[in-house]
Structure formats: structure tokens, C-alpha cells
Amino acid sequence: MSKNFEISTLLDYYGMILTDKQREAVEFYYNDDLSLGEIAENLNISRQGVRDSIKRSEAILYEAEEKLGLMKLGKVLNESLDVIKKNIDVIDELNIKRYRSNDINESIKVILAELEKLRDI
Amino acid sequence: MSKNFEISTLLDYYGMILTDKQREAVEFYYNDDLSLGEIAENLNISRQGVRDSIKRSEAILYEAEEKLGLMKLGKVLNESLDVIKKNIDVIDELNIKRYRSNDINESIKVILAELEKLRDI
Residue A101 phi/psi, 5° resolution? Predict the structure, then answer.
């Protein structure tokens, strides 16, 4: 994972624990690709202030991940959801081609809806 | 959810963000049901120190949940896993009784293993 992408992902998980100013600076820098000078102007603080804020924020995000491990957990969850989805698709295809059970079809639909829901949490 | 159980659950999710002393005090109090006096003796601090530490820790745990919502997320995840499990059981039973497909059986086994894994994350 590139560092930029990693920070963006950590922001998704832990953005709420930063102050508004910190979060804005990191979002401008990593998500919107603004320069330190541009961010300084937007936030009305010095370039060095922006640099310090981003460094501090990165440390907070990495510390949160070290303690809570949400990014790692999200990866495990998504991998599991992939495996479940793949196997539901196998059952679905077999059912469509061979068994044509409405009950199986209904259960598959419910499961697929739950998998979609879990993708977004 | 009783407050005691809620704090214990929050500890499972966020215990790592407390200091060792804070975590010990809260665990003694909420998980082991020790009195403030007993905890004070164990940790070699004053009764008032224990009380302050527990109060401070509770505030940190509730603030973490407000910002990150892991306890709520865990509840949503577990409810979804229940629904998926129930529907996999329906498919499994239909398959055992009527269709007897080894391929469906294999896919069900893989899915059940993943569901078990997700129960523990």
C-alpha cells in the first residue's frame, strides 16, 4: 500500500479523533493533493504550521491503528466477505442451473443483501 | 445493556487506548467486581485516586465510542452474521434433504468457516 493511500485509509477509520483543523490539513494534503503553501493559505496558518499539523496527525493515525487495528480488521472482514460472496455465487449458479429451489433462491437474496450491508460498515 | 456490561464491552474494544493503570483499575472494578478499597490496595494508590482514574477512564471509553462507534459496529456485524448463518442453515437443510449436492455442501462448509472467523474479530 502506498503511503498516501494508507493515510487516506487511516483517515477513513480514524479521522474523527483528529481536530477539525488537523483533519482538514491531512485531507487537503493526502486526498486533494494540495501543496503545503496552498493548504497554509486555505487554513490561514503558516507553511510550517501545516507541516507540523500533518506530521502530528500522521503520528496520531498510526498510533490509533497500532492500538485498535481497525484498518487491519477491515482488510480481514473484506477478505472474508469476498470468500463468502464467491461461494454464495457458486450455490446460486448451481441452484439456477440444476435445482431451481425458490427457497434456496430466497435465502441467497437475503444473504447477498447482508453482504452488501457489511461492505459499507 | 447494564452500565457494567457496557463498560466491560467498551473495554474489549478500546482497552488499549487506556494507560495500564487506568485499564487495571477499570478491569478490577467492572470485570472483577472489586471494591474501591481493594483496588486502591492492589494498585498502591489512594481510594480517591482509584475513583478519579475510573471516572476518567469511563469518559475516555465513551468518547472513543462516540467518535469511532466500534461497539455499535460490532452489534451490526453480529446481527448480520446471525441472519447469514440462519439462511445458510436453511440452504444446508434443503440440500441435505432434497438436492444432495456435494458442491453446495462444500461451499456451505467454506462459508460457515468464514462466519466463525468473523465472530471472533
Answer: -90, 125
- Give the distance from CA A13 to its chain's centroid: 6
**Min Cα separation B1/chain A (Å):** 22
pTM for the structure as a whole? 0.85
* Cα–Cα distance measured from residue B41 to residue B96, given in angstroms and rounded to the nearest whole number: 60
**Average per-residue pLDDT for chain A:** 96
Q: Which of A110, A111, A93 is nearest to B103 (CA)?
A: A93
B91 → closest Cβ in A17, A107, A118: A107
ipTM summary value: 0.84
A2–chain B nearest CA distance, Å: 24
- Which DSSP category does A16 fall into? G
Residue of B15, B3, B14, B29 lying closest to B71 (CA atoms):
B14
Query: How far is residue B3's CA from residue B28's CA, in Å, rounded to a whole number?
Result: 15
